[in-house]
Every structure is written in C-alpha cells, then in structure tokens.
Amino acid sequence: MSAKSALKKFQLEATCYICSGYFIDPVVLDCGHNFCHTCLFDCWRDFFKDFACPQCPETPGDRNIIQNKHLAGLVDLIKQLSDAFSQIAGEVPVCQQHQVQEPLKLFCKNDLIPLCSVCEQSLEHQAHVIVPVEEAAEEYKRETKAGKKKMKEYFKKLHEFLVLQESLLKTKFQTLLGEIRKKRSECFARIFKDIVSCNRIILELEEKCQQPVCEFLQDVKGTMESLE
C-alpha cells in the first residue's frame, strides 16, 4: 500500500458517518461506532426517538455515550499528516471545514485567509474581495519586500543616530561624566532594543519571502502586522 493510499484510509477512519467531515469532539456508543458529538444529538433529535445508532441497527436504549479523547487526538494527528504530505507532494492544501475538501486556491483580502470555492460562496465572505492565491501572494510579497526595504532604512538611521549621539556625548564626557554615563546607557539601551527588533523582523521577512505560496499566505496576517 502506498503512503498516499494509507493516508486516505486514515482520513476515512477519522471521518464522521453523519457529516462526512473530520470528527469534532467525537463520542463513542456501546456498539463501538464513533460520531461527532453535535452530529449525533442532532440526528437523535431529528430522526430517532429511541437513541439508536445511526450507523447500525443496535439500539443503546439510552444516551450512553463516552467522549473519545483518544480518537480526537488521532484526528488532529491525521490532519497534520495530511497537510505535511500535501506540502511534500507539492499539492495545494485543502479546506478542512467542509464535507468535500476543496483546495485552498482563493484568498480573502478582508480577513487575510486562504479560502476554497465553498468558502467563497458563504455569507461570511460574500461582500469581501476574493482573489486567486497566486495573485495575493505576489501582492503581499511585494508589500513585504517594500516593508523590508523601509525597515533597513530605519535600521540605518538608527545606527547613524547612535554614532552621532555617541560622538556628542563623548565631547561632554569630561565635564558631565556622571550625567553622560546615565544618559548614554539609557539611550544605548533604547536604540539597541530597536536595532535588535528591526534586525529580527528583517530576517523573519526574508525567510517568509522564501516560503511556498500557500505556506506564506497562512500567516500573511501576522506578516502585515509585523510591518505595521
């Protein structure tokens, strides 16, 4: 069995019989079948009066359910493996919010998140600006590069300011030794903190610009906040 086939089998085992999506807060009945907690109670409320298992004829007789924390953990692991496999295989990540997992080929510029075609049609995004992920990636990479350039200029000005301040303070060193030491220490601490912060952000932006399109867009909101 290939790795892809094995992953598909794992994904099927992590799927709720009722909603056909990944288990959310899974519970298990006496018969051994698992369901999403909400899906099961909605099913019982709408279709079953005897609390029968929706997947088999067995009837528990009462609401004898147990939270399946172990399965919930496995579902999270399978989601991570699925995302990792997609990245290794060069595939476009799929949306995890719907029964039919659509590829994340769109991007919402209002919420700064990737979307699938189903997400695009939802009420939540109807009035939003939606563009292809490639177009969004190019736009935000341009903004990131421009922000990196401004950050470097700011870094340079901070460095020049530090040199100038050091020179000015040294001229007064002999007459105002105690006051200069105090002011220089405070000044250096503030500027050094800004320099370290700018340098760190520049390095982070350079790394983000090298990321694949979808990985870059996953945290583009955080990138824009860093630039601000």
Radius of gyration: 28 Å
Number of structurally distinct domains: 2
The major pleated sheet works out as: 3 strands, antiparallel
Total strands: the figure is 6
The first-to-last residue Cα distance is 49 Å
Secondary-structure element series = HEEHEHEEHEHHHH
What general outline do the C-alpha atoms trace?
Answer: elongated
Mean pLDDT: 79
Question: Helices and strands: which structural class?
Answer: mainly alpha
Strand order within the widest beta sheet = 2-1-3
Strand percentage lies at: 5-15%
- In which range does the helix fraction lie? 55-70%
Question: Low-confidence runs (pLDDT<50, min 5 residues)?
Answer: none
Number of helical regions: 8
Which features characterize this protein?
single chain, 228 residues, mainly alpha, Herpes Virus-1, 2 domains, three-stranded antiparallel sheet, 8 helices, 6 strands, 58% helix
A few lines on this structure:
The protein is mainly alpha-helical and 228 residues long. The chain contains eight helices and six strands, in the order H-E-E-H-E-H-E-E-H-E-H-H-H-H.
